[in-house]
């Protein structure tokens, strides 16, 4: 887009602020009038001063001569005078009419007689005095002499009343208006102030990003090849079209963006707009994700002459981000599955598969931590050992399947009767061990008694498929206060108390004797 050049130094007259269309229209009108004047000079096509009036007056005189010829031949002088009088009455410009024979004899005269000075100047026809011959066959009979009112000379109104002047005014004004209207329409496509050379267009076509150049009226001056490839509707000649007509482009703007497009903000306020997101739907193809940048084009005086709008295609990057987000989501999902499987593996590795309680390896890892913490804090910690009474008889009498159910029912009763912080382990086949951090011997004995009663009351009815005899368990309780130095020693104390419960008749709770002492 070309900018207005600066006024050269030393120029006395300022540049007129006319649009190119106005200047071209004035030039075409001047050429038209000049051509008409040359044609008049050579061919005389424009009537000159008095020529039109001369033709009219000559035509009146010739028509009168034709009428008078027939009347003179008939000798009807009364009709002749009447006809002349009617001509004088109808034509205010006619002063007098005279009929003379060829020898100069006056036949008839009507109207105002000219003065002697005027008659001395009326020897030949002029604009105010006409002589028309009257023929009798092929011979001259005489002539009709007509005197007209002299034409007014000078004055603007009289000058403007001339047909030639009126013709020039009409052609000049009408030619200017028609040229201006036609060129205003044509300049939408051929604007000399926005013309871009073909070499520049070809250079812009080599760019990978779409590019539009707009004039002050937001009309497209240039659309490079990358922009035309963005949408099927853009693969036509866009030069001269207003950008508002590209509905497919305007419909790609999201609701959260400003209502005014970036190019309009640039044209109105010379604002630089950068990286505005535009999603461009395309029929039958994936959407384009574009970053729009708009920059003003100004002249030497800082006036906005248009703007340049670039469309950077971020579709591939957007697709890569979407694929990356999907991959990350899949990785997170896989990680969650791996964590779940690891937790499951850890649970399987640390739990007894039949009862869900800790196995011995996991139990000692957790119990050792609790034991050392209790010793360091000088707090209470108790251990409960439990064994199912006469368990072997369940296997022998009802089978191993029922024996397994008995172990599971007892394990559920023990799990439901302790705290989440307590540690439960299937210590042997039918033997269980519980560590109660922060517990006193009295509380531990109370817990053991409650567990014993729960098993005695409900374990029998929980067996499915067969009716078994009553299920009971014996318990032994030991505390850290008995002087145990290690976890194993504490478990041994609880196991000794369990053994005394077995010797004392089973289905009871026994606390380690040294703790009582």
TrEMBL record:
Domain GGDEF: 379-514
Source organism superkingdom: Bacteria
Catalytic activity field: 2 GTP = 3',3'-c-di-GMP + 2 diphosphate
Name of this protein: diguanylate cyclase
Organism: Sphaerotilus microaerophilus
Enzyme Commission identifier(s): 2.7.7.65
Coiled coil: 317-351
PROSITE patterns xref list: GGDEF (PS50887)
This protein's record includes keyword Protein biosynthesis: no
Gene3D superfamilies linked to this entry: 3.30.70.270, PAS domain
InterPro entries named among the record's database cross-references: Diguanylate_Cyclase, GGDEF_dom, Nucleotide_cyclase, PAS, PAS-like_dom_sf, PAS_4, Rev_trsase/Diguanyl_cyclase
Listed PANTHER family: DIGUANYLATE CYCLASE DGCM-RELATED, REGULATORY COMPONENTS OF SENSORY TRANSDUCTION SYSTEM
Entry keywords, A to Z: Coiled coil
Segment forming the signal sequence: none
Keyword 4Fe-4S set for record: no
Pfam families xref list: GGDEF (PF00990), PAS_4 (PF08448)
């Amino acid at each position: 887009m070309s900018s207005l050049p600066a006024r050269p130094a030393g120029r006395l007259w300022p540049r007129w602020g006319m649009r190119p269309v106005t200047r071209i229209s004035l030039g075409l009108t001047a050429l038209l009038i000049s051509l008409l004047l040359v044609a008049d000079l050579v061919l005389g096509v424009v009537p000159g001063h008095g020529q039109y009036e001369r033709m009219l007056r000559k035509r009146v005189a010739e028509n009168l001569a034709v009428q008078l010829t027939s009347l003179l031949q008939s000798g009807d002088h009364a009709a002749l005078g009447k006809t002349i009088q009617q001509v004088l009455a109808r034509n205010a410009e006619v002063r007098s009419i005279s009929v003379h024979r060829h020898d100069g004899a006056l036949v008839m005269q009507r109207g105002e007689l000219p003065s002697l000075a005027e008659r001395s100047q009326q020897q030949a026809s002029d604009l105010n005095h006409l002589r028309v011959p009257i023929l009798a066959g092929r011979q001259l009979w005489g002539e009709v002499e007509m005197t007209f009112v002299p034409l007014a000379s000078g004055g603007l109104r009289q000058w403007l009343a001339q047909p030639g002047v009126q013709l020039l005014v009409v052609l000049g004004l009408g030619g200017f208006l028609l040229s201006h209207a036609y060129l205003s329409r044509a300049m939408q496509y051929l604007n000399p102030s926005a013309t871009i050379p073909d070499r520049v267009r070809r250079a812009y076509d080599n760019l990978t990003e779409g590019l539009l150049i707009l004039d002050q009226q937001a009309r497209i001056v240039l659309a490079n090849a990358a922009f035309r490839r963005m949408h099927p509707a853009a693969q036509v000649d866009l030069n001269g079209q207003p950008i508002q007509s590209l509905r497919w482009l305007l419909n790609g703007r999201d609701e959260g963006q400003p209502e005014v497009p970036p190019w309009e903000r640039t044209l109105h306020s010379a604002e630089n707009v950068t990286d505005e997101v535009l999603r461009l739907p395309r029929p039958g193809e994936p959407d384009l994700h574009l970053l729009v940048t708009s920059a003003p084009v100004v002249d030497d005086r800082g006036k906005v002459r248009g703007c340049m709008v670039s469309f950077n295609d971020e579709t591939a990057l957007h697709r890569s981000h979407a694929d990356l987000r999907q991959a990350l989501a899949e990785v997170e999902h896989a990680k969650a599955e791996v964590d779940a499987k690891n937790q499951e593996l850890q649970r399987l590795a640390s739990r007894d598969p039949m009862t869900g309680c800790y196995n011995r390896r996991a139990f000692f890892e957790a119990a050792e931590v609790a034991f050392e913490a209790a010793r360091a804090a000088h707090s209470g910690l108790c251990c409960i050992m439990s064994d199912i009474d006469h368990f072997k008889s369940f296997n022998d009498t009802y089978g191993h399947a029922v024996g397994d159910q008995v172990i599971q029912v007892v394990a559920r009763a023990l799990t439901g009767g302790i705290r989440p912080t307590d540690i439960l382990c299937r210590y042997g086949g039918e033997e269980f061990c519980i560590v109660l951090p922060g517990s006193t011997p009295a509380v531990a004995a109370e817990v053991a008694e409650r567990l014993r009663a729960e098993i005695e009351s409900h374990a029998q009815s929980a067996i499915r498929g067969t009716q078994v005899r009553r299920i009971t368990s014996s318990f032994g309780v030991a505390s850290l206060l008995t002087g145990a130095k290690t976890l194993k020693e504490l478990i041994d104390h609880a196991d000794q108390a369990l053994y005394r419960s077995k010797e004392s008749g089973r289905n009871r709770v026994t606390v380690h004797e040294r703790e009582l002492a």
